[in-house]
Amino acid sequence: MNFPTARQQFYQAISQPEAQIDLAAAALYIAQEEYPHLAIDAYLSQLDAMAAAVQARLPTERYPMKMLQVLSGYLLSTLGFAGNRQNYYDPRNSYLNEVLDRRLGIPITLSLVYLEVAKRVQFPMAGVGMPGHFLIRPLIEEMAVFVDPFNGGNILFEADCEAKFRQLYGPAARWHPDFLAPISPKPFLMRLLTNLKMIYLNQQAFQQVITILDRLLLLYPDSAYDYRDRGLIHYHLKQYAAAKQDLRQYLRVAPQHVETAQIHALLEQIEAESQRSD
Fold first, then answer.
1. Going from the N-terminus, what domains does the chain have, and what CATH number goes with each?
2. Which tens digit of pLDDT belongs to each residue from 91-123?
């Protein structure tokens, strides 16, 4: 695979056994394609320094709720990390280097900072990919609580999370407790990349959408929808050979999908258009 260096590093990072994937490093490799001179080790060292400061503030008796209090107090009050409510869809909110520099982010990237600092002080936490709003939770059996880094580190219970979900999707939306299950690194990175994909689509920054889809397909090589979307964008950009390749791969991966007939028709149209342009 002939990838840019940052993408090679990303691919190597996600090729580890899932439990060994370094989320912070993988997120920084994602950012490095947008910021080619990004110094990965310097940002990892920032996280190390934050963890050392939290460690120094922890009491001798490491009660979980006290640890959460110290973690939130340091990250949110002392360092000033906060949700970017003024410009939520600024792509910088999704790049870990920018979040660390500006101390502004969205739920998933603020959660990532929490998770990485917590990991470094041996306080096990995991991301929670609740639809519409990313949270984190301690991985301690007797602690059925959730933390909302975007909203001041609020401590939530399951009923609070369900209320938030219904606030976002309406009272008739179907809630399921599995929405609060911990997620592993690959789904975490998929959600981070999907956020960027939607931001760049809305900005019509199509070449950047393609680079995001490239990395989504490294994470999940059989993702039919990502092949379809990348093929459609290549077509929009009149990159006919790449469009045909992706749309044919979509048909191979999802031959029975409801859109199959439309994609076959589009491939015929692309073939005709590409011949006219030759």
1. 5-183 (3.10.620), 223-278 (no CATH)
2. 999 999 999 999 999 999 999 999 999 999 999
